[in-house]
Amino acid sequence: MGYRTMSDRSKQHWRADTNILDVVALMRSQTWNHRYAAIRCDEAKRLLLKGNYQAAIEVVLPLAQAKGTPLHERAKQLAIIALDELVDDYFERGDYPNAVKCLEQWLAIEPHALYPLIRKAEILWLDMENAEEARQVYRIALHRYPRCVEAWLGLADIALFTGHIKRASIFLKKAWTALEDPSWAYPPTAEIVANILESLYVLTARLLAKTGNLQGAYQLLSDGTEAIGDVSEYIRQEIEIIEGLLEKSI
Questions:
Q1: Is 89 in contact with 53 (CB distance < 8 Å)?
Q2: Longest C-alpha distance within the chain, in Å?
Q3: What domains sit in the chain, N to C, each tagged with a CATH number?
Q4: pTM, 2 dp
Q5: CA-based, 20 to 30 A from 158: which of 42, 66, 167, 180?
Q6: Helix count (H) and strand count (E) of the chain?
Q7: Of 147, 70, 146, 150, nearest to 116 (Cα)?
Q8: Cα-based distances in Å from 83 to 60, 92, 162, 240
Q9: Among 140, 63, 132, 128, which residue's Cα sits nearest to residue 100?
């Protein structure tokens, strides 16, 4: 059996050192990539704290969009914070196309998120009156979240407005049924839940009114007022409309 000489041992150590150096050389670029990503994320966070959301998204969005990049998840979360603020900012200024654009950027980095889908559909329908595109977005939301009450309500509202009474009836039945175990687009605070319940009662009352059942519509709104408690001007105005229709029908 042979034995190793000092020369053999020296060669073995040299090979081990060489392997380590190869790994270091290979990972050197990755080390720089991680540092670069960390610098960009830190800069985006600083801009967010200053309220400069547009600059923050310009800094961090490329990292958030490219999967597999260093600190991708951190970049994505920072980008979402910036986009959420920008959506509100554009919306308050009445710049609905740019609000929708920010929501689309949000969905590009978080494609299965429910909130930006519903917010996009609501702006398209309620503020831009784009029924066709809003309908498509609501249907995408329901394909992923079939128990989303807000999406069923959105489809019902569009159907009622466009005169598709049978469709509206189907959508409202789905919305009421989804309440058993709903997927919430918005955080289910007391205010949000009350708003959704009001929409359910109001849209169902409108459906009854359109089919000629004004008394049933009035009774449903009265029941809704009692069930919800402190109702908003939205449901009060609907009650006044039904009362006016009832007076004319006498």
A1: yes
A2: 115
A3: 31-111 (1.25.40)
A4: 0.84
A5: 180
A6: 11, 0
A7: 150
A8: 11, 14, 32, 39
A9: 128
